[in-house]
Protein 1
Amino acid sequence: MPWCDSCDRYLTPTSLDDGTCPSCDSDEVLAPDVAAPVGRKLPWHFKLMTALVVMYLSWRVVLLAITVVDWAF
Ligand SMILES: [Zn+2]
């Protein structure tokens, strides 16, 4: 997807006017392969939510194991 550095946003390929940004008329619109967000840092709230989900699911596995042991023996 094309990326405009001046506007700091993605553009739809059909909105480009001869390769320039329709909002700021900047011709420094990056090609899709250059603009791919490789290595872009994940937001902190995503990491926090992932850590909390992993902790919750781990606790649920422990509870399941306790329940199975109580049921079996
Ligand atoms: Zn722009």
Note: The chain has two domains: 1-39, 41-73.
Protein 2
Amino acid sequence: MRMTIVLSILLVVGAQAANHDILVQGLSFIPDDLTIEMGDSVTWTHDATSAFHTITNGTGTSDPEIGTLFDESFSGSGQTFVHVFADPGDVPYFCRPHLGLGMTGIIRVTANVGEESGTWSDIKGLWR
Ligand SMILES: [Cu+2]
């Protein structure tokens, strides 16, 4: 019985943070519109055939928020960049050299507070 409870807790906690993959290919982020949960991470992977890119948060070079969360440069194939999204909200991003060519994306981070408190009540309920 105790083993079952411990396993359940591990499964619940393990399910809370997920990673999502985005491929940087040509002049595109694939997918370019991604919805994730708060606490999740995103891994961008540079395709072997694409040119020099950046992954820069903001809507463009006139955005005062530019680069405040991340501003990563890619120079070689297969390179990866990981960012954990700790706060809810929309996070637009773009590639500095290819912004004019429409190389943009957005990460929509949803709050998972309700789900989390439900989860913790479930866990506490197991020990009553
Ligand atoms: Cu680019």
Note: The chain has a mean pLDDT of 85.
Protein 3
Amino acid sequence: MFAQVAFCYRGTVNPADLAHADALPLHSRTPAAWARAVLADPIALLIDHAFLEKKAAANAMELLTRWPNDGVDGWVETMTSVARDETAHLAQVTRILMNRGGKLDRIHKNPYANSLRLLVRKGDPAEILDRLLVSALIEVRSCERFAVLAAESTDTELAAFYRGLYLSEFGHYKVFLALARKISKPAAMEARWQEMLAAEARILAGQAAGPRIHSGFLT
Ligand SMILES: [Fe+2]
Ligand SMILES: [Fe+2]
């Protein structure tokens, strides 16, 4: 039964291996220098990160209610489980932020995610496929970024935090992709996924530098 799919990857994978090995299909790799640069401003990084977790939870809830009865086995279970995981991540990151004297801002901009959303074709069934693939893209890139952060952080609390997250986001990437495979013909899904992966690398490369999870490489 699909609901039994593991949302958190349970294997034992070294963060550095996951970030740099062929385990991830990303078309670009984040250099260690990016992590060292963004970790220089941990409060700003945590604030940005908190908004990403909130958005990830809201995205799962939006997908749940947008296509609640389309007969996709595991749809409701997946979306509620992902939303639960992302809300737990939000609680973790805000606790770390507050303990360090940081506060959430009212406004958050995420040009990376906004650009990815522009890839979504309107109108079913392409829209539902693209929404799932964009969700998978954000998860797999976040997974890679958390792995690099875990490997490079000299702050033991943050290193452990990021290590815990990269496995969870890896599980989310896999489960969104599994749903995409259920609703689409394999060849069409794979072709669209490859287009999306290439577009993601271009979009990320065009992002400005700065202490954000999805910032550009040049910091
Ligand atoms: Fe998360
Ligand atoms: Fe996630």
Note: Residues 38 and 137 are 21 Å apart (CA to CA).
Protein 4
Amino acid sequence: MVEIPLVLTCDRKYLPYTTVCAVSAVRKTKRRILLYVLTDESVTAKERKAFLETFAPFGNVKAEIIDVSGIAPFRDSAFPQFPKIVYYRFLIPQLLEGKNVEKCIYLDSDMTVLADIGELFDTPLHGKLLGVCRDPVMAEQIGKQKKLPDGRTWLEYVQSIVKKPENYFVSACLVLNLKEIRARGQELWKKAMHMDGTNFYCPDQDILNMVFEDEVTFLPTAWCCSPPETEGASVPEAKILHVKMWTTSLHPSDDIWFRDLKFTPYYYRVRAEYLALLFERSVNNVLRPPRHGAVKSVLLFVWYFLAALAARFSGRQKR
Ligand SMILES: [Mn+2]
């Protein structure tokens, strides 16, 4: 197959970030991408139009929005970082059924594609239902012997999900073998769809691990890299980054993400929100010394911030 079906999911809040993720894939991939975005009633008609128009200048993509409102029976998780959209990926086999698609890539919206996803798409799946990457974040948490709020270690938790904790995979980057899922994976898929993720720490991811543990083939971890936030911690071999770049201030790779953002209608909005976030964090850091009250701290901060801006724009201080 020459064309590469790529599926993303979002609601209104995630739409700008989903758009950046899609743009990053389109810009780095030579072959034509069939882009399917699964979304719900929260995204307005105007926003849908703007989304589709974003991809018009690119010659190698055909974008389509698939509305899942009404067919998505999912509930928000107990944890606010997991809204119900995390389950929309479970709808992919059903929604692509009539589209003659034998295989597709699914990516989380908080990803940035750095390499041609044709290579990911062509990786052999050896008859398994899913291509996945081992979860580097979970491995790190297990290594640090971090504990969960319920007192269990992460290792104990993962052992309650899968037989082999070292094979626990991340659900952010999946290659779905739709042909094989249709042929013999329907029951497993139905099982996953109807499981209640409310009490899992990583709802959709834990469910996929539980159900498909014996039905995955492992892809190189370069396709799902979660570099630490510390400065200088870029991952040179990374082909896809998995970082919420819009909340991760001064990440070494944020310039890559902002470059892709420029191709979307959200550039100024997201840039402004990012600056406000940096400002808030800086103010909070200023407020830390106990000798100053909040008002004095903010005034001092604003004073020095304006002075620094003036110095930069007058050319007296360039980095
Ligand atoms: Mn993610």
Note: The beta strands are 4-10, 33-39, 61-67, 104-107, 111-113, 130-134, 169-176, 216-218, 240-242.
